[in-house]
Amino acid sequence: MNRSRLMLALFVAAGTASAGGLHGIATSDIDRNANACTDFFAYANGAWRQQNKIPDYMDRWSRRWQSGEVNKEHVRDILTEVSAKNDWPAGSAEQLSGDYYAACMDEGQVDKSGLAPAKPLLDEVGAIKDKAGLQRAIGNLHEVGIFAPFAFNSAQDLHNPSQVVASVGASGIGLPDRDYYLKTEPRFVEARAKYLEHVAKMFELAGATPDAAKTDAATVFAFEKRLAEASLDNVALRDPKQQDHTMSVAQLQALSPAFDWGAYLDNAHVPRADLNVTQPKFVQQFNHEVASTPIAQWRTYLRWQVLNASADTLPTPFVAQNFAFYGKYLSGATEMKPRWKRCAEDTDNLLGDALGHAYVTKYFPPEAKARMQDMVKNILLAMHDTIDGLEWMGPDTKAKALEKLSTFNPKIGYPDKWKTYDGVRVSRASYWNDREAAARWYVADDRAQIGKPVDRARWGMTPPTSNAYYNPLLNEIVFPAGILQPPAFDVTATDAVNYGAIGVVIGHEISHGFDDQGAQFDAQGRLSNWWTPKDNAQFATRGQCVVKQFDGYFIEPGMHHNGKLVLGESIGDLAGAKIAYRAYQKSREGKGPEPTIDGYTPEQQFFIAWGQWRGDETRPETQRTMIQGDPHPVAKYRVNGPLSNLPEFKDAFQCKAGDPMVRPQADRCEVW
Questions:
Q1: Is residue 181 over pLDDT 70?
Q2: Which end of the chain, C or N, has fewer beta carbons within 10 A?
Q3: Cα separation of 158 and 468, whole Å?
Q4: Phi, psi of 412 (to 5 degrees)
C-alpha cells in the first residue's frame, strides 16, 4: 500500500470527530483511488465529480458551481414571492424586481409579440441614409446598452483615480475575441464557418430570405473582421499601459474626424473634457468605416448588433438559435437553462440591488459578516508579514508595497448605499420594454459619474452574485454575499475549511493588487511605477517562472495554456494559497491547533477545501475557449499548479521529491 493509501486507511479508521461542533471537509468527495501527491485535483474531489456529472445546461460543474446554482434558486424563491403580489407601490424594490421577473417568465407573451417590441430600434437602423443618420443610430443604440462598434463608459482616471472620466474602447464583434477572426488553426476556421451559419439563421428568423441572410452574414463577418484586426489581443489587453491614452476631445476628433464626437458627448450629456481612448488604432479603424463603408453595410451590421445583443429577450426561436451557437457549440452545453433560471439571472444582473435587501436578510446573517471580516483582517496581516519578510525585495519597494497594502478597502456582503433605480418603469406587459428601461437607467447612471469625484461606495457586483473581484484603481477587494455561502464560506465549518476555501479566494483577490497588472498601480490607485529597477527585474523573473509553468499545461495534445494570458490569475492563486495558509496558522495563535477530523489534520483540511472549491469538471469545448481568451486557467491547473509550488502542501501530505505534486526546487515558483 502506497503512502497516500495508508494515510487514507488510517483516516477512515479514525471515524468522525468535530472541532467544537464545527465540521471538516467533505470526505465523501475524495477519490480514495487517487494519490494526493500525484494529482491533487483528482484526489480532493474526484469522487464527487464521478458521482455528479455536469448538468446538460452547464459548461462546468463542482460544488462551487452547484452552490452558485443553488444561489439562483434562492433568488428565484424571493422573486416568486414578490411577483405573486401585483400591487406593490410603484417604483419599490418589490414592484421592480417582481414585475420584471414576471414579464420575463411570460414566455407566451414574448412569443406572441414577435419582433414587434424590437421594431423601433430595427426601423431606426433600417432608415439610416447618411452619416448623420448613422451617428444618431449609434448614439441611440448606446443609450440602451448596445455598444457597437465602440464602447463608451465611465472609468477612473488612470493617473488621478479620484476622478471619473469618459472612456472609449473597442467593441462590436460577435465571436469571443479577435483571434477567432484571424488565426488559421482548424478550430478557428470551423468557428468562423459556424458563426457565419449562425448569423445567417438569425437574419432568416428576422425575416430575410436564405440567400439574403447569407449575403448579410458575410457582410457582418467582413465588417467585424476589420474591427478585430485593429484590436489588441488578449495578452496585450492585460497591460494597462497599452490602454492608457488620455486625449482631449479635439485630439479624439482629429484621430477620428468622420464622426462628430462633440455632438455624441452632448447627446450623451457628458462634459467635453479629457477622456481615455483605450485603443487608438481601433478608433482609427472605426473612422475608416464611417468614412468609406457603404451605408447599406452599416445598416446590415447594426441590424445584427441589435439582434445579437437582444437575442435572449426575443421569441423562442431566437433564444434557441442563440443558445445553439454560444451555449452549445462554443461552450458544449447540450440543454438550455430553464427559463426561471435565465429570468432570475437577468433580474439580478439588471435589478440586483432591488432584490438584494431580501437576499442578504435571508442568506447572510450578521455573524457571517463578522467572521468574514475577521478572516479578511488576518489574511491582510499575513500578506503584510509576507511582504515584510521578502528577501528579494529591497527596502524602498517594500515600503511602497506595505503602504499599498495598508490602503486596501474590503467590501463584504452588500453595499452601504443601495441603488434605488429611480425613474425605471417596469410592468408585466413587455419583457423587452422592461429590459430596455433597465438598460437605459444603467447607461444613464454610468454616464452621470463622468466628470465627478469617484463614488467609493459603488459596487461592481450585485449582492446575490457568486463571485469576487479586485479593483486596482480603488484598491478594493469585494466579496458579495452570494459567494459567501457553503462550500466557500460556512459558519458551521472549521477555520481550516473556511481558510482553505474562501480564505484562498480572499488571498487571491488581495494578491491581484500585486500581480503583473495590479503591481503597476500604487497605493492611491494611480498607474505609476513604485518599483526600483532591480526589484522590478526580480518580480518579472519570478513571474516568468509562472508563465513557463502554465505554458506547459496541456488540455489536450497540441493545445496548452498561454502562460502570459493566465499570469495574473495564477499569481493570485499561488500567493492566495500561501498567505491564506499563513493567516490560518496566525488565527490559531493563542487558541491551539484545531483537531484532526475524520482522520484529516487541519493542514490537510485546508488544502482539500481548496481542491474541493476549485475542482471543476469542465467541458472540452469550454476548455478550448478558455485557453484562447480566459485569463483564468482550467480548474485542474488552478488546483495543482499553485499547490505543487508550496512546501506547506508537500509537508501536509508527506509528499516526497519526485512526486508530480512537488516541483523540483530549481523549477519552484514563488512570487509573493
A1: yes
A2: N
A3: 22
A4: -130, 125
Which of the four pLDDT bands, split at 50, 70 and 90, describes residue 11? very low
What's the CA gap between 374 and 368, in Å, rounded? 10
Asked whether the beta carbons of 510 and 379 are under 8 A apart, the reply is yes
Q: How many CB atoms lie within 10 A of CB 87?
A: 7
Chain centre to alpha carbon of residue 72: 17
409 close to 355: Cβ distance less than 8 angstroms: no
Residue corresponding to grid cell 459619474: 449
Task: Name the one residue in this structure whose C-alpha cell is 475524495.
Answer: 30
**CB-CB contact of 443 with 144 (8 Å):** yes
Cell numbers representing residue 16 in the block: 468522525
**Cα first-last separation, the chain:** 37
Q: At what angle do helices 533-551 and 395-406 cross, to 10 degrees?
A: 70
| Cα-based angle 334, 337, 341 (whole degrees, multiple of 5) | 165
The dihedral formed by the CA atoms of 549, 553, 559 and 562, expressed in degrees to the nearest 10: -40
Check residue 155 and report its DSSP letter: E
**Partners of 476 in the β-ladder:** 409, 471
Grid look-up 463603408 returns 293
In a 13 Å sphere around the CA of 551, the CA atoms on its Cβ side amount to 8
Phi, psi of 488 (to 5 degrees): -65, -45
Q: For residue 479, how far is the Cα from the chain centroid? A: 13
- State phi, psi for 626 to the nearest 5 degrees: -65, -50
Q: Rounded to 10 degrees, what is the CA torsion of 124, 127, 129, 130?
A: 0
Residue 255 phi/psi, 5-degree rounding, is -70, -30
Task: State yes or no: pLDDT of 2 exceeds 70.
Answer: no
The predicted model scores a pTM of 0.93
Identify the helix (H) or strand (E) that includes residue 630: none
Give me the mean pLDDT over the 540-569 stretch: 96
Confidence band, pLDDT 50/70/90 cuts, at residue 3: very low
Residues recorded for the chain: 672
Q: Does the pLDDT at position 444 exceed 70?
A: yes
- Complete DSSP assignment for 605-624: HHHHHHHHHH--EE-HHHHH
Strands 275-277 and 246-247, sheet pairing: antiparallel
Cα gap 603→25, rounded to integer Å: 11
Of 229, 203, 231, the residue nearest 215 (C-alpha): 203
Q: Which helix (H) or strand (E) holds 154?
A: strand 150-156
